Automatic annotation (TrEMBL):
Keyword annotations of the record: Glycosyltransferase, Transferase
Gene3D superfamilies, alphabetized: Glycogen Phosphorylase B
Residue intervals of the Glycosyl transferase family domain: 37-178
One MF term in the entry's GO annotations: GDP-Man:Man(1)GlcNAc(2)-PP-Dol alpha-1,3-mannosyltransferase activity
Name used for this protein in its record: Alpha-1,3/1,6-mannosyltransferase ALG2-like
Entry superkingdom: Eukaryota
One Pfam family in the UniProt entry: Glycos_transf_1
Amino acid sequence: MKTKHNRQALDRAQKTPATRIIRCYKTVSLEAALVMAKTIRGGRDLHLVVAGGFDSGNKENIEHNNELVGLATKLDIGNHVTFLKSPSDKKQQLLMHLCLAVVYTPENEHFGIVPIEAMYSMRPVIATNTGGPLETIEHNSTGFLCEPTGDAFGRAMLEIATSPRRTVKEMGSAGRKRVVTLFSFEAFQRGLCELLEKLVPERRGRERE
């Protein structure tokens, strides 16, 4: 978040009832995002929104949330971070619309839908250079693939924050194009048809033998 207007919109979004719960575990490595916020705080009007699932009946969720809030206080970034629990689809869409970039912190994660959603929303993605993001994100084109540390995330975010608006917009456009070309329903349908067309002649050839 960069502007007062955006923060006011975020305040309105937080008043909307949440409808989805996606449990947030320690393996998501959100600590790195908080260290990133500490790294970029000086001289930059940037605000980190930590948006993830929260189940009040899950002990691990409660403990981890308390740890993250405590770390934000320890790093002296409490006024620069908002913890948004179990955001609804409406909230997520608003966040995507308002944000400068999306930071995806899990290491060795599977495919991961968040980078896809962010790129389709024309937002650059900062993620670890492990797991699914290696396939979905094109480094220096649709976002940045980094070592899984707060300092590395911070450098990538500063790169985006200090780039001309046109450059950031071009990165967002490249992300949308990549999703439509490689990861849309039409792309999967096309790939499946090509595979079937390849398999059918091979099967017919074996039947003639």
